[in-house]
Amino acid sequence: MAANHKRSGEDVRPIFWASRPKAYVFRTQHWDEFPNGRWGSSESPAFGELKDYYLFYLKSKSTKEELLNMWGETLESEQDVWDVFHAYLTGSCNPKTGKKVTKVPWNDDELSAETALLTEKLANFNKRGVLTINSQVSHGTSKT
Asked: Where is the MTHFR SAM-binding regulatory domain (predicted)?
């Protein structure tokens, strides 16, 4: 259900907001519609400037200490970042800390079940430095 009664019929939201409901609601609370390419009205609040206010809603439910224990206290190389992404996707332990990676900065939740269909491919990409922050499985035979 939408927080804004004007948008109560809304049933589609951008995939990249799926794991950030508070930021999504805060950032879009005054929108009367989503930007939909060049056909939308440029007077709509959805076409306004992007400001940083919505970033303040990126606070994790975990403490900074818990997150650093999972991710590592320091970065020695790019590989450290790749390893965190890989461990998150595979549900394995971070080789640097020995702790299971269950969260990333933009997502306090574990991966959705549908991601299991892509996990192996995504893990291989991320292990090699192609970092993925979104994924979407195809629906039926539709290409995504």
From this structure: 2-137
Domain hosting residue 97, numbered range:
64-127
**Count of structural domains, the chain:** 2
pLDDT 10s digits, 58-93: 678 889 999 999 999 999 999 999 999 999 999 999
| 19, 47: one domain | yes
For residue 132, what are its two tokens? 């993925």
Last residue of one domain, picked from the residues 57, 73, 93: 57
Distance of CA 107 to the CA centre of its chain: 5
Give the pLDDT of residue 56. 53
